[in-house]
Amino acid sequence: MKKSVKRIASTLAICSVMGMTLAACGGNSAGDPQAQKGSADGTKPVTLRFSWWGNDTRHQATLKAIDAYTKLHPNVKIEAEYTGFDGFYNKLLTQFAGSTAPDLFQFTYEWDNDMYDFLLDLKQSKSLDTSGYDPSVLNNFANYKDKMVMAPAGATATSLFYNQAFFQKFGIPETTEWTWDNLLEIGKKVHAQDPNAYLMSADIDVIYKLILQPYVAQMTGKNWINDDYTPAFDNAALTKGLAYLSELYKGGVLEPFGDSSAFVGKMEQNPKWIKGQVGVLFDYISAFDKYKQSVPDGKLGVAAYPMAPNALQSGNPIAAGTGFAVNKTSPNAEEAVKFINWMVNDKDAALILGAQRGIPATSTARKALEDAKQLDPNITKGLDLAAKQKTIAPNVISINADLAQIAKDTLQKLIYQKETPEQAADEIVKAYGSKLTALKK
């Protein structure tokens, strides 16, 4: 997903060598103050370009929110630019390089390091009310270095979703307190009882981020990567995690990788899940609604994430991974912040946007949904279950895309039994060593 910010530098260098201005490389209203004469005083016309990613449900909710805001502020016009997630990051980097970036956009803290120089410091704005945020959310996700680069839109945590009818069929108590061991044990029994049934299914991203990383983190009590750019695990811990993953496949606990890989990021469309041949999925609690809609009669339950006995931490923090950021070169940056403030704090906005970007991160928006009974109790339950466990705040380097790709490439060799857990661990540790050295520089 990620590309080095060096690409931006090289693009700018090409423009410089060719004797072109940034505008010649591609200008827009956000990068060229002369292109837009509006003001944020509430009287003169203001045009804002707002870009985000998501599915159709999020698109429609956001468009309704834009319509409601512009009716309240007739001088403001908001141009909507929306798409799926694929390619959004690269497009945004290219737009910054060419001075064509939108005024405001959906953002994730994973991009802090790459886009920091292009973002407005929201702490300097008088238009954003942060009183409704939990301080830990601001410290862990909104702030980076000396700036507040993002206004978090929602909070989430990983949950165990289960098909209640599947559990009933195979005699699995809904009150089961899940550990990695009983997940393996029960999964083997399910597959032995019905060779066409699997306790779980997972795509490569879930395998890496929501199984392997938490499994290892519960042993180490640390992030995936230390802040000093060294692995937070040793070879033995990684080997143990890889061996466990291998057992999930060998025991028929996980649906065969070749079948599940067709549904990366859209496991609710997996026919085995829809037909009740898969009982458990790991995903963020904010995805509850889409899985509920894909299960017959909406019989979907939520349970606590698996925890090893004596785990040092859960490896499952409550995260405010996405929100809104502002292009610091926008001539109408303050008006952009006003719109963001309305989206994250206003009760009417909360009712329109719902949980399309996660459970609302501010107390005012969350209360509005709860009072209107628009927040499923299972979603709150998922967050509450995660909050009960000891955890640590994630760091940016642990979710680096290059490191993820290294691991995922090796994981597929392990899954297809082309490498043993020991060989796979050696390969990852070696590749991480050179990549982390380069990243640190």
UniProtKB/TrEMBL annotation:
Keyword Transcription regulation in record: no
One Pfam short name: SBP_bac_1
UniProt superkingdom: Bacteria
Keyword list, A-Z: Signal
Signal peptide segment: 1-23
CDD domains (UniProt xref): PBP2_TMBP_like
Protein name: ABC transporter substrate-binding protein YesO
Organism for this UniProt entry: Paenibacillus konkukensis
